[in-house]
Amino acid sequence: MPRRLFFPIWNRNKAVIASLAIGLLLAVMLLLVLGWWSNASVGAARRTLFWAAIVIALALGGLLLAAGRGFFAVLPMGFAAWRFLQGTGLGNGYGRHHGDASQNDNDSDRKAPCGAQMTRQEALEILGLRDGADEDEIRAAYRRMIAKAHPDHGGSDWLAAKVNEAKRVLLDI
């Protein structure tokens, strides 16, 4: 006579119960990761995503190698190597993270640090103008942009403040 467990459903549906347990565990882990993610700084989140992409690509490559699919393992492992080299500044992605060599080294072209005064180049970009715009063009562009960005017309306070600051910078008010 076969030995019966207290929970007879376990004998019939081991795979289903195991799948549910793994799913529950993954859901709890996802909730913990999302809780961390919502409170993480941008820098910490970028570093985490960077390393997660490398680890996942290496794991996938390792699984493909273990399964005897060495040719297909080259792609994820190559991706991991490319991301690693790009992040360390040794690969072709160096310029994207540390300023393109094609950019001018003029101080007016650089972005101002957070909380600093807006540069002339940023002000021109915000108002959609080119360098050398006269006062009438600046005022017309300001009126056009503030009409779109004003909080009373569906815009935001922050965007309206940026448009006002761009006008102030360009007109030296």
Automatic annotation (TrEMBL):
GO terms for cellular component: membrane. SUPFAM superfamilies: Chaperone J-domain. It is a single-pass membrane protein. It is found in: Membrane. The chain crosses the membrane at residues 15-37, 49-75. SMART domains: DnaJ (SM00271). Residues 122-173 form the J domain. InterPro entries: DnaJ_domain, J_dom_sf. Its main location: membrane. Keywords: Membrane, Transmembrane, Transmembrane helix. Belongs to the TIM14 family. This is DnaJ-like protein. It comes from Eilatimonas milleporae.
